[in-house]
Write a structure and sequence with these properties.
The complex is a heterodimer of chains A (320) and B (331).
Chain A: E1 2-15, E2 18-31, E3 35-39, H1 46-53, E4 61-70, E5 73-74, H2 80-87, E6 92-95, H3 109-120, H4 125-138, H5 155-166, E7 173-177, H6 185-202, E8 205-210, H7 213-219, E9 222-227, E10 230-236, H8 237-242, H9 247-254, H10 294-298, E11 304-305, E12 312-313
Parallel strand pairs in A: 3-8, 3-9, 6-7, 7-8
Antiparallel strand pairs in A: 1-2, 1-4, 4-5, 9-10, 10-12, 11-12
Helix pairs in contact in A: 3-4, 3-5, 4-5, 5-6
Chain B: E1 5-17, H1 22-27, E2 33-45, E3 49-53, H2 60-67, E4 75-80, E5 83-84, H3 91-98, E6 101-104, H4 118-128, H5 135-148, H6 154-158, H7 167-179, E7 185-189, H8 197-214, E8 217-222, H9 225-231, E9 234-239, E10 242-248, H10 249-254, H11 259-267, H12 307-311, E11 317-318, E12 323-325
Parallel strand pairs in B: 3-8, 3-9, 6-7, 7-8
Antiparallel strand pairs in B: 1-2, 1-4, 4-5, 9-10, 10-12, 11-12
Helix pairs in contact in B: 4-5, 4-7, 5-7, 7-8
Classes of the chains: A alpha/beta (320), B alpha/beta (331).
């Protein structure tokens, strides 16, 4: 049973020079208690997809088509008030990129975490603070630190605070946008462990947005690899890492050096990601693909299920 | 690889004083300092790629800056080709040496002057050092530098400005600027951490080719152990201003001797969903460098710490072939 189903989602940014096709025909789903990783390089549309799901769009962005169904409710169609009252934070919450640096400097963390509870639920201040201290304990911050201010906390602690914030109203789905990018490896490992434990303890679903494939390999069940606003490959993590099909995925996986196993050559992808104002015709990856044929230049490959069930690829040559 | 020493750091110390108010200064006897680099010694051989690995705030960048005399050490010395460069006080004399040592900074969005064209950015070191005699010669060198970094055709890039280029292209310009003088020694401070993964490996490959071409010695500063493994011949792991372990890269990563190195390697996520990672056993975060813990600086987080670790500081000692470690109880 899927909790969230995103189908043919299109979200464009309106600019003076035309539409920037940031999210173009994206389809994926998140099951209950499932962690899905959205991976790709900067500008590939991963954050835009997340913003569309929680419908916090910048002023110039527009959902052009498609549907986002959460437990059967289409989030694209419902009004702003219903979204605010029933969906945001209660059903879906988000850990924004760099959120730990956006904590308010003159409120203590207890006040900041409880603010979310007070805004969304009809509870007393005292009750909200009690729940806050439980939340903080859950992410590994001692109760007595509830009156601390952000400047008194380290980066890892602040990241835990914003994680607690996202959990404030018991959501079913949490979207985490690059939650550990600014942290050092050891702290990153600690925060990831907290997130993994929370997922099990609270039966949460996660969408993890990151450029670092190894984080997805360690934490997620499924992954969608995005390139230039489209999903190029989507499926089970183990299958995608063991047997990647799309040329982009294959290159991307080997572009990461590893500390285990034998030392191997790091792959590189020639050229640069395209400008989404006028993405290349046909397959968007064809200008950088070593195997591109004529059909790749003219016809856009659809995202199709391959021989293995649940493994989708958008490639003329290797997919299907 | 020859065993001639290109550059050597001897007991380098760098303390940054902290500003305190006037009244506080009346009551404190010793003004507080940040112990950025504390008694660091190592050698980099000719043609070698030496890595400095550690978390943010461990002093790796400061060490890099000290090596090329961009910062003045509190004590200790750096010798470059046998000359003690920390003793050179006159900038004019130093300038001659600067042509032999260059640095590549982390962020190509900040290290390139937005008002200068690409040609001028790369030509500036040549002009300052008065290396080229004629303008044709200057042009030739710039073209060659651009070609070396696969920025072809050079004419297309020469007359552009940094804002017209992507991050990867900018970083290549920064590398071209560093290599245009054909330096003997280079420091690269996280040169690819701002770049996308698909572009990273290409930039690293170009770096390796250039190092080989000019037989440069290279200090590679990074927080990414996996990248250090890919790039470096030898690495030193730093923690709170000190080198805790140093040795040939592959051996050090396969069998670390210092508990901190072990934890650092175990914490690196592995791009393989089927591999089970070892639990990270160390807790907490790096203590403040203003009042570093006495004894072994890692003892507050070390799972193996004993009594002696809290009082006595371990010295960097040779254990086995080409491996030094600063630990009372090496693994």
């Amino acid at each position: 049973m899927s909790l969230l189903v995103v189908e043919n989602l299109k979200m464009y940014y309106k600019t003076l020079r035309g539409y920037v096709k940031a999210v173009d025909d994206v389809t994926f789903d998140v099951g209950k208690k499932e962690a899905v990783g959205l991976a790709g390089e900067s500008g590939c549309g991963k954050t835009s997809t997340a913003l569309a799901i929680i419908r916090l769009l910048p002023w110039n962005a527009e959902i052009i088509g498609g549907s986002i169904r959460l437990d059967g409710i289409d989030l694209v169609k419902i009004g702003g008030k219903q979204l605010r009252k029933e969906i945001r934070w209660k059903k879906i919450s988000m850990i924004f990129q760099g959120a730990m640096n956006a904590l308010h400097p003159i409120y203590n963390i207890g006040q900041q975490v409880s603010e979310g509870i007070l805004a969304h639920e009809n509870v007393s201040k005292k009750e909200a603070l009690e729940r806050t201290s439980k939340l903080l304990e859950l992410v590994g911050i001692e109760e007595e630190k509830i009156n601390r201010y952000p400047h008194e906390l380290s980066g890892g602690m602040k990241q835990r605070v914003v994680t607690a914030m996202a959990l404030a109203c018991n959501p079913a789905l949490v979207i985490a946008d690059e939650p550990t990018t600014a942290l050092d490896v050891i702290v990153q490992a600690q925060v990831l462990n907290v997130m993994k434990e929370l997922q099990k303890k609270l039966d949460l679903s996660w969408i993890l947005i990151t450029h670092d494939l190894s984080l997805i390999a360690e934490t997620c069940h499924k992954t969608a690899i995005m390139y230039a606003g489209k999903i190029v490959e989507y499926g089970d993590v183990v299958k995608i890492f063991k047997d990647p099909i799309h040329p982009y995925t294959r290159k991307l996986i080997t572009a990461f050096p590893s500390v285990v196993g034998s030392k191997s050559e790091m792959a590189s992808i020639r050229g640069f990601p395209p400008d989404l104002l006028s993405p290349p015709k046909g397959c968007r990856f064809h200008p950088r693909c070593d195997d591109a044929k004529e059909i790749c230049r003219t016809e856009e490959p659809p995202l199709e299920e391959g021989k293995t069930k649940g493994h989708y690829t958008a490639c003329h040559l290797y997919g299907g | 690889m020859s065993k001639d020493i290109a550059i050597e750091a001897r007991n380098l110390v760098k303390h940054f004083p902290i500003k305190i108010g006037f009244f506080k200064s009346l009551t404190t006897r010793k003004p507080p300092v940040v112990h950025a680099v504390d008694d660091v010694s190592f050698k980099i051989y000719k043609g070698e790629i030496f890595g400095l690995v550690g978390e943010s705030g461990c002093g790796k960048t400061t060490t890099g800056r000290l090596l090329i005399n961009l910062a003045e050490p509190t004590s200790g010395e750096v010798s470059f080709n046998g000359v003690n460069i920390t003793a050179i006080s006159q900038e004019r004399k130093m300038r001659k040496l600067r042509s032999k040592m260059q640095i590549i900074f982390q962020d190509p969005y900040e290290s390139l002057n937005p008002r200068m064209g690409i040609f001028d950015i790369i030509a500036e070191p040549l002009r300052l050092q008065k290396i080229t005699k004629t303008s044709e010669e200057l042009r030739e060198r710039v073209v060659e530098a651009l070609e070396d970094l696969d920025l072809a055709p050079p004419e297309e890039f020469m007359y552009r400005f940094p804002h017209e280029l992507s991050g990867g292209q900018r970083q290549r310009i920064a590398i071209a600027r560093a290599f245009v003088l054909r330096p003997e020694f280079l420091v690269a401070d996280e040169p690819v951490s701002m770049l996308d993964v698909s572009i990273r490996s290409e930039v690293l490959k170009l770096l390796l080719t250039l190092i080989e071409k000019f037989h440069s010695s290279f200090l590679y500063i990074t927080h990414d152990v996996a990248l250090a493994r890919h790039m470096c011949d030898r690495v030193a792991v730093m923690y709170l201003g000190k080198i805790v372990e140093m040795g040939a890269t592959e051996g050090l990563i396969r069998k670390p001797s210092h508990p901190y190195t072990e934890a650092l390697i175990a914490a690196v996520p592995v791009p393989d969903p089927t591999s089970r990672r070892i639990e990270v056993t160390i807790k907490g975060e790096v203590p403040s460098a203003i009042n570093p813990p006495p004894g072994c600086r890692f003892h507050t987080r070390c799972p193996y710490a004993k009594k002696i670790c809290m009082t006595e500081e371990p010295k960097l000692q040779e254990i086995g072939k080409d491996r030094q470690v600063a630990c009372h109880f090496p693994l």
